[in-house]
Design a protein that fits this description.
204 residues; mainly alpha; 9 helices; 78% helix; 0% strand; globular
Length: 204
């Protein structure tokens, strides 16, 4: 899902997420595809983290490979719109899909990305991991923009909105699970007459 969101933003041509600006610059200046650029840059960050003692998990590496592959496949499938309104619509769809994808990964604790590995290294050495992540994001954004990456108005919008969007997605997941637990609790305490528990209670 994250790969589809990244590809939608890239196809719309109005700017990609801050980190992806660097990926798009690598893809434009080297023979690497967008997805392969993601592999290269994330792999480099994983390597740096491993040198400092934080090794990536199998899930993390699998997520990195799958995400890059999804980006390249989606870019082959998505047709870049020509008129501005369609490009804006595709950009916002991509942003929503990206936020949902990130929220899903975070909610399920499915994998830790390359940035998370670097943040762990920083935390182990008494540094503020959020400051380190911000520095990484800003560094890749500036470097990518200077190298001709896909910086645009959506880059700024995503930078300002992706955090609240991810939080909203996480809240939706929490609300869903809370509602499910309440329904299960209610069903257990007040069984339906058609259920085995309900028939036993009725006979008693």
């Amino acid at each position: 899902m994250i790969g589809a969101g990244v590809a939608s933003l890239a196809a719309a041509g109005l700017g990609v997420a801050p980190f992806d600006v660097a990926l798009s610059a690598i893809a434009r200046r080297t023979p690497l595809s967008f997805g392969q650029a993601a592999w290269a840059l994330s792999g480099t960050l994983f390597l740096v983290a491993a040198i400092f003692g934080v090794r990536p998990t199998g899930r993390s590496l699998g997520f990195m490979l799958l995400n890059g592959l999804t980006i390249d496949i989606a870019l082959q499938v998505i047709v870049a719109p020509e008129n501005l309104l369609s490009r804006i619509a595709l950009s916002f769809i991509g942003t929503v899909v990206l936020a949902i994808g990130v929220a899903t990964v975070v909610h399920q604790s499915a994998a830790g990305g390359a940035f998370e590995s670097i943040m762990t290294v920083a935390e182990q050495r008494g540094r503020d991991p959020l400051i380190i992540r911000t520095l990484l994001e800003v560094t890749f954004l500036i470097a990518g923009a200077l190298l001709g990456g896909a910086f645009g108005p959506m880059t700024v919008i995503i930078a300002l909105s992706i955090g609240p969007a991810i939080r909203a997605g996480l809240q939706a997941y929490d609300d869903h699970h809370t509602g499910r637990d309440i329904r299960r609790s209610t069903a257990t305490s007040n069984p339906s007459p058609q259920s085995p528990q309900g028939r036993l209670a009725h006979q008693a």
